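Annex B. Sample input.
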Amino acid sequence: MNKAESKLIEVRVPQLPESVADATLSAWHKKPGELVRRDENLVDLETDKVVLEIPSPEGGVLSRILKSDGETVVSDEVIAVIEPRRIAAVAAPPAEAAEPAPTPPAAAPEPEEGPLSPAVRRLLAEHGLSPDQITGTGRNGRITKEDVLQYIAERESAAAPEQAAGGTPPDPMATVHATPQERSERRTPMTRLRARIAERLLQAQQSTASLTTFNEVNMHAVMELRRRYREQFEARHGVKLGMMSFFVKASIEALRRFPVVNAFIEGQDIVYHDYCDIGIAVSAPRGLVVPVLRDAQRMSFADIERGIAEFGRKARDGSLSIDELMGGTFTISNGGIFGSLLSTPILNPPQSAILGMHKIEDRPVVEDGEIRIRPMMYLALTYDHRLIDGREAVQFLATIKECLEDPARLLLEV
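Annex B, continued. Sample output.
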């Protein structure tokens, strides 16, 4: 080994944004003495917004771990040391291994389909699974969390008939714990993300004068437009035409007419935005996250749909970056995908308003003096009454209703 190879390499915490003071080491994936490859994930770093992966800067041997799981770290702090090795020395098998040797338990490489997300690795470790047991359905064959959950469900379903037919008897202790009389409880620490969500929700309730106004929208025109042009849209743009792009476009038009809804309070000042950074609330395995569509006022329907689809994929894989979750001037939350008929969304400070979408349900409505069945949705706008008057909030929501019930308004901006 030459002098350049013998120099130890420090593994440091990446530079965190100014709004993130520190982070927690969630889980090391390598132990001291194990071989690592360049860019292989060494440890998961959990902030109050996302889980980040810290890759190995070089290939070699993980010499020392200076910070353990659960410890708090800051930007540029040294958390481990690597003794560099040539890639060939890391990857090549021993030359003297003429006879078959047992497979080392911890040296199995990751599957060809690409790096695993933190959520997937945790599931695999919890259930004692290997990545090569599971077929990935994600991009380029990537294994997703849903793939692992599906595999576990199928395995349990297959095991049930075997036990019923006289196979492996059930664990008697499991039977004891499953009795109705047993009253068990578990205590686990909150993740940084969940703790941050709790803190921000409480802050929103305590530091703003929140009020909610409601309306309902007839979704017949939007659904008919989607039905007529769905296939052509997907063929041309390579993405499905969903509902959310209509709501983003309608919100942008309403924000243009009522710019105070797109503003926020900072000290004794009101900060107005001449752009629309729209946050899209997404339910991720670790909690609710709000990635942001930057300059949404410049985006087409196809651009919006692509952006939202990409956010959904990254939220499931745990690969959203901190930058994608920063900022935002207005938020849209869709509780309807979970079956919510009506709810009151909570503000996402420092923003001054949030739009809540809900379940579409057929209801009788009066049109031209006749009763017809139409797909109706309740809308909710929660706003900070310190900044936004009730008149503006009601007219803002009415504008969204008008744009959705007559989608041509979105194209003509009328």
